[in-house]
Design goal:
Region (Disordered): 490-550
GO molecular function: calcium ion binding; low voltage-gated calcium channel activity; voltage-gated sodium channel activity
Distance between the termini: 92 Å
Radius of gyration: 49 Å
Shape: elongated
Helix content: 55-70%
Order of helices and strands: HHHHHHHHHHHHEHHHEHHHHHHHEE
CATH topology of the domain at 3-149: Four Helix Bundle (Hemerythrin (Met), subunit A)
Strand order of the largest sheet: 1-2
Subcellular location: Membrane
Structural class: mainly alpha
Number of helices: 22
Membrane topology: Multi-pass membrane protein
Pfam families: Ion_trans
Strand content: under 5%
CATH architecture of the domain at 3-149: Up-down Bundle
Number of strands: 4
């Protein structure tokens, strides 16, 4: 026997200790078989018991059989009374809110009748009360409830439970059917009364009885209508003589058959089927709950194993410690029972080890193992959750580095622009309007503007995400009312045409650049400045110290 089977057997034994003697499978099966044997004995006694010219010795065997079944029934009741106690035996579980426990009360009444009949038999008086003990066969329902976990008796339990649950519905339908037959019996008795039409006008030659026997009184009419409900060759002897004399009564029988057979009786079949399906569903849910309880016991033992696998008692589980624990057979059996493979555990350890340190928390690992139970969807969701957190952290880090890189590039561009603006002061520069306008221009930091634009972009993106989380229905309505693709393309074309026209108009309105001064346009070669491409600075060739201006 494997560790898994021993563990499940231990769970069943612990549960069995809490079950009372009267609720155990062996006692319930004994009482059910005893009820079946009592029923068979009653049948044999009716067929083979001496009826005429009988001697006292002819009843000796049947008296012994009656005494045996009587005291067996009394012992069953006494065991149940001792196990449950008098209050619980007659009232049942008080937490369920019931006043009495009807099956046990009825069984107590049946056994009491059996005992009274046996006492009268001892003085030679036959009461016939022992026939009531035949109804003790209802203990088969209790046996079917106990044996439903076996596949052989599961269908028997569903059928018997469906019949028991539909008794209330069947009683209601039968009451309605009785009321319906009473109503139609009054109508047909009035219309076929001898005061209205003499009975000689009805042709009941092919029927064994005349009209008054079938439709003379309301009770006889109700009995005839019940025969109509059973549809047992009733048309020739019951309905046809009435329809031949009164053709309008054909609609009467049609309406009655539709209301009784097609409506009332068909409802009973539907209720039985629905009750059987409901019982099967409840049985599947109960079985799933029992399996969940067993898995919970295995999980608790697995948690203890993971804690014991932590050799250094640091609260963290390393990959080597996990592999060492998986080398044990009891751990493998528990993992196989839970449906968790070694590959799942290795992947889970890799996902939880976000910092690649080779160790994770024991409690966190056990909680993740508990989530791996069930369908593949649960494992995928767990993996996606861990991947999403890790990728979100990576994206944030990359975004921060990208922002720093953009700031550095903006600073370099600003330095390049500053070098381009740093020119040597020359006496003739005052006549150059381009240089004068450029030097008087206000400088702006591109790095600051870039950081400001990026921060505003983050704020807008966060605002849009919050709006999408808070108002999903509003966004879905807005997306459902989108502009059609044709209209959107036309709007984009018109917007691009307007932008193109505005740019062309602005270009035409720009004034041409002013001409360069003559001293700059045609400067002698000896007075030209030498541009130092590496530094962006100029130096006059005639000598002297250069002066710089920002």
């Amino acid at each position: 026997m494997s560790d898994e089977e021993r563990l499940l057997q231990m769970v069943r034994e612990l549960e069995q200790e809490k079950i009372l003697l009267a609720d155990r499978m062996g006692f319930v099966a004994f009482v059910a078989l005893e009820a079946l044997a009592n029923l068979a004995a009653l049948g044999l006694e009716i067929d083979f018991k001496c009826a005429h010219n009988c001697k006292d010795s002819d009843f000796r065997l049947w008296r012994i059989v009656d005494a045996v079944f009587t005291w067996l029934a009394v012992s069953d009741v006494l065991v149940a009374l001792v196990s449950y106690g008098p209050v619980r035996y007659f009232r049942g579980d008080t937490r369920e809110g019931g006043l009495v426990h009807w099956p046990r009360c009825l069984d107590f009444a049946f056994v009491t009748c059996r005992v009274i009949d046996w006492c009268f038999q001892m003085v030679g008086v036959e009461t016939g009360l022992k026939i009531v003990s035949a109804f003790r066969v209802m203990h088969l329902m209790n046996l079917a409830g106990k044996a439903k976990r076996f596949a052989t008796f599961r269908e028997l339990y569903w059928i018997m439970n469906g019949m028991l649950n539909t008794m209330k519905s069947v009683a209601i339908v039968m009451a309605l059917l009785l009321l319906l037959m009473f109503l139609f019996a009054i109508l047909i008795t009035i219309n076929t009364s001898s005061h209205v039409i003499p009975k000689e006008h009805f042709n009941f030659v092919n029927s064994p009885f005349d009209k008054d026997v079938y439709w003379g009184t309301v009770p006889s009419s109700m009995l005839s209508l019940f025969v109509v409900v059973t549809r047992d060759r009733w048309s020739d002897s019951l309905a046809r003589p009435i329809i031949e004399r009164m053709p309008v009564m054909a609609s009467f029988f049609i309406v009655f058959i539709v209301c009784s057979n097609l409506a009332a009786l068909s409802t009973i079949v539907g209720v039985v089927v629905e009750s059987t399906l409901t019982a099967a569903k409840h049985n599947a849910e109960r079985k799933a709950a029992e399996a969940e309880r067993h898995e919970q016991v295995v999980l608790e033992s697995l948690e203890q194993i993971f804690k014991e696998a932590d050799a250094d008692k640091s609260g963290d589980l390393t990959r080597e410690e996990l592999q060492n624990s998986l080398g044990k057979s009891n751990v493998r059996n528990r993992m196989r029972f839970l449906g968790i493979t070694y590959g799942d555990l290795d992947l889970l350890f890799t996902l939880l080890d976000e910092d690649s340190t080779g160790k994770i928390g024991t409690a966190s690992f056990f909680r993740s193992c508990a989530r791996l139970r069930g369908h593949a969807m649960a494992r995928d969701i767990n993996s996606m959750n861990i991947d999403l957190k890790r990728n979100s952290k990576w994206v944030d880090e990359i975004d921060r580095k990208l922002c720093d890189t953009n700031v550095s590039l903006a600073g370099l561009l600003e330095i390049v622009d500053g070098i381009d603006r740093e020119v040597i002061i020359d006496p003739n520069d005052a006549g150059d309007p381009v240089l004068v306008a450029r030097r008087s221009r206000e400088t702006k930091s591109r790095a600051e503007s870039m950081c400001r634009s990026q921060s505003m972009a983050r704020i807008n993106a966060r605002r849009e995400s919050l709006k999408a989380e808070r108002f999903p229905s509003k966004i879905s309505r807005a997306s459902s009312n989108r502009v059609s693709l044709v209209r959107k393309s036309l709007q984009m074309d018109s917007a691009s045409d307007s932008l193109r026209k505005a740019i062309s108009t602005r270009k035409q309105s720009w004034a041409p650049p002013p001409p360069l001064p003559s001293h700059l346009a045609m400067r002698p070669p000896g007075r030209q400045s030498e541009v130092m491409e590496t530094t962006g600075m100029t130096r006059p060739t005639s000598g002297g110290e250069p002066r710089w201006r920002r």
